[in-house]
């Protein structure tokens, strides 16, 4: 009975997750476990009353004076632990230390494609696109000037955006392409100066930038600008195309972007994120956060249940030790095998 209750508690604790499929899984699994427990408690006694118990196998006590083999094994194991308690404690401490080192290597893989076989069509197609084009995953950086009209016509702002793009593109091989309004300005400035490479930069004059943009809107396709900046030049979209969609890749890009946050803040610009890659990262973080909360909640509930059952908080705390050790060992092994 206690096994069923504690198992159900473990699944019910998944309600702390912010991911709805995980919540539903926890609810229905806990319901199934409790239902099986109730049915076992109701139908098994009834079945025994109707059909009776099977005949027990007789044990020759003369041949088995020390008990059954499994009992002997358990007794010998318990005796050995008690006899060498200090060795057991040292071994437990070493296991905990090794597990903690392994846990530090653990990371959540949010890659959708890693869930498929390497030779599957979708993986092979994705590989081809990543090898020959910009990448199948995207990270969108939304820069917001907080209502300051024309902010992204300023040379200092566009130069900072351009520098950030180049840093991300050159430092990380997984970045296949970056694109923003800064690329438009670099290209227009170069073309308007006899296609000289020296002019493949952001103009220093704000009026010149405004003239280039006006010229593009009149002669080019103005809808293209809508993909990178809003009408009042208050919000800017910077797109990073990535060749991988796992959490490590997304975080490596974010680490470089975070190093520019203070510079953008000094210019009165805030940073927000979007894109398929970022959504996968957020989803992975939600799962991780939910798992941590559910583990802590289930541990707390089990301690309370055991304490009530044995009328001793001390016993409840002691009973949590095997659970904690099991969790540490499991996550430690995951980290080493990661």
End-to-end gap = 36 Å
Give the biggest beta sheet: 4 strands, antiparallel
Strand content: 5-15%
Helix content: 55-70%
The CATH architecture name of the domain at 133-274 reads 2-Layer Sandwich
Mean pLDDT metric? 85
Please report the number of helical segments.
Answer: 12
Give the topology.
Layout lengths: L1 H11 L7 H32 L17 H15 L1 H20 L16 H12 L4 E8 L10 H17 L3 E5 L1 H11 L14 H14 L15 E8 L4 H12 L2 H6 L3 E5 L1 H35 L2 H25 L1
Antiparallel strand pairs: 1-3, 1-4, 2-3
Description:
The chain is an alpha+beta fold. The chain has a domain of 142 residues: Alpha-Beta Plaits, CATH 3.30.70. The protein is 62% helix and 8% strand. α1 packs antiparallel against α11 and α4 packs across α12. It is elongated. The two termini are 36 Å apart.
Question: Nutshell version of this structure?
Answer:
The protein is α+β, with helices and mostly antiparallel strands.
Keywords:
338 residues, alpha+beta, Alpha-Beta Plaits, 4-stranded antiparallel sheet, 4 strands, 62% helix, elongated
